[in-house]
Structure formats: C-alpha cells, structure tokens
Amino acid sequence: MNPISREKLYDLTSYDYTLPPECIAQSPASPRDSSRLLVWDVRNDVTTPRRFMDITEYLMPGDLLVLNDTRVIPARLWGTRESGGKCELLLLHNITADFLEWEALVKPAKRLHAGDIVNVCGHEVMIVGDMPEGIRRVKFRFSSRDEFMTFLEESGNVPLPPYIHGDNSMRESYQTVFARNDGSSAAPTASLHFTPELLERIAAKGVRTAYVTLHVGLGTFRPVKAHDIRQHSIHTERCMISAETAAMIRECRESGGRVIASGTTSARTLESFCDNAGNVEAGVKDTGIFIYPGYRFRAVDCLITNFHLPQSSLIMLVSAFAANKANAFGHEEEILARLLEIYEKAACEGWRFFSFGDAMLIV
User: Fold this and answer.
1) What is the pTM of this model?
2) What is the architecture of the domain spanning 6-72+171-362?
C-alpha cells in the first residue's frame, strides 16, 4: 500500500490510480445482476468477491434499500446555428415545470449567446441567458411538456459518457429497470445492476425498498479541477424525497434496521435532506453537496456503488464513506490508500469499471 500523508488528503492527485483502458466496460452485464460484486467489510478490512445477485446475502430483514428513480432523457441534441455551423446542446436542469426552459451545456459556447437561435430537427431553440462555464439558459417553443417530450424522444440522443463508445441504440441499457421520473442527463449507474427478479427476492427477504429522486447533471459528472479539492464547487442538481420515503427511513431507524443507499446519487440525496440529529425530512431542493474525506455521514449505513473515475468527486465520496464505516476519523488518508489499493487490484484481476462496470458493497 502506498502511504498518503495527512497533508496530501485534499490534494487532487492523491485520488489517482492506474486503470488499463480495457477495464472500462462498454456494455452492461447480461443479465444485469450477473455483474461482479466486491463486498468490502471496512472495519475488518475484508474484501469478498461475489456476483451482484448474491447481494441478498448481505441484506437483512428490516433493512431499507434506497434507490434513485430518475429517468435518463435523450438530453443530447445536435443542431445548427443561424450561421449554418453545427452545435450541441446537453440539457442539464429543467428550470420550468413544463420542461420548456432548461440550463444546457452548449458547444461551441463562444459562438452561442443570449438572443441566438438554434435549429434542432426543424424546431427553433432560443438562447435566453448566458451562464458561466459554457452553460446557457435555453427555451423551446412547444405548447406543452408532452409535445416537448415527444420531440425529445424522436430527436434527442442518449447522453452516454465519453468513455463509452456506444450510440442511441443503448437507450434502454443506460436506464434502470425502475426509472420513472424524467430529468436526468446521466444514469444512476450503481442501480443498473438490479433486475425485477432480484428486487422481488430482496422484498421476499423482508427488506423494504424506498425511492428518492436526484436528476443527475453536471454536478455528478463534471471532473474536479481544483488542486485542493476543498476548493471544488459542485453544480446544483434537483433532488426530491417524498413523505412516504421519509417515513420509511424513520421507521427503519426506529426498528434498528440499516439504510442502504444504492449509488452516490441516492447517498447525496439522503445526506442533503438529513439534519444534524440524523432525521431525514421530505422535500424538494437543489443540492450542491460535495462529500469528501472528513465528512460525517448521518443518513446512510451501507453503500452500493460502482468503480469510479480517478480524481472524480465520486471516488472522494466513496473514500469518505469508507472512513466513516471504519470510524477512522483523523486517519482518512489510510482508508483512501486502501481504497486505491483495492481499485488497482480489481483492475489487475479484470474487474469492469465505470458506468457499465461491476459494483462494490461497502458494509
């Protein structure tokens, strides 16, 4: 294990590791729950290789599995500027409930500003506001949300990450089996491993399932660029917890069960709605919570997650969670070093990484 000094804990380069390109999964396992699962008992520092379908052996009656039910929309649009030049819009965050105004990442940003009009498949899109970092406020000219969504399904492209060499035919692959709330620019990938049959087996074991919503946008997938990670700011993402889910979490806590978050998006949502006493309240908000080592989790007891990109905010969250499970406050650098060692060993053993890759369960 390569030691990481305490003063380097917040250094971006400390979250790097070596990953051969062939380890980046290009398609999901088939069936989905046949993917590999690495169970990490942090307190005893024991890792156990399993299959994702075996996760039922690590869930107990009274536990609560929390899933993000966001649905990925065909958020990438190709169009032409008034000059005739090509451009791209990536829809990130709906501003209005009718889905007709959005924050969008545009390319080329230097050539698209407020007042410009983009043509997408014969429909005009107006740039109505400039925002930092290549983001623009855009407005669509449709009479209703339903009309807009029909246009999007016909004209939009699935926003696959750049490391996946796929196309629009992978729409269903890049969607969880329980997706129902439109709005995401990326999938909550830890939950891609679940199948309807596996969810039935989990329920039969006495484990309840609750849903939250976080529409994945720029905050989740934009890379960390600040050398001192504490200077990084996450773009806000819309998230929601229903009164029913809040009540289920409260009942789980009162009965001594564990709250198991599937994915970093579910974990960030739960922590965003949790007070200092550990109570999760219902509501809707835009969250920019950035979790890195030193953070104390209040709402999440176990975490299901994938193997994440080097130097990403997601690997920082996973490192922070593992330190919490190990009760290693003040020694987070040791847990980070161990996490990176696990990642590199998994890469050497042919585990699959990133969105369509294998999973970890941290208990």
Assistant:
1) 0.95
2) 3-Layer(aba) Sandwich (3.40)
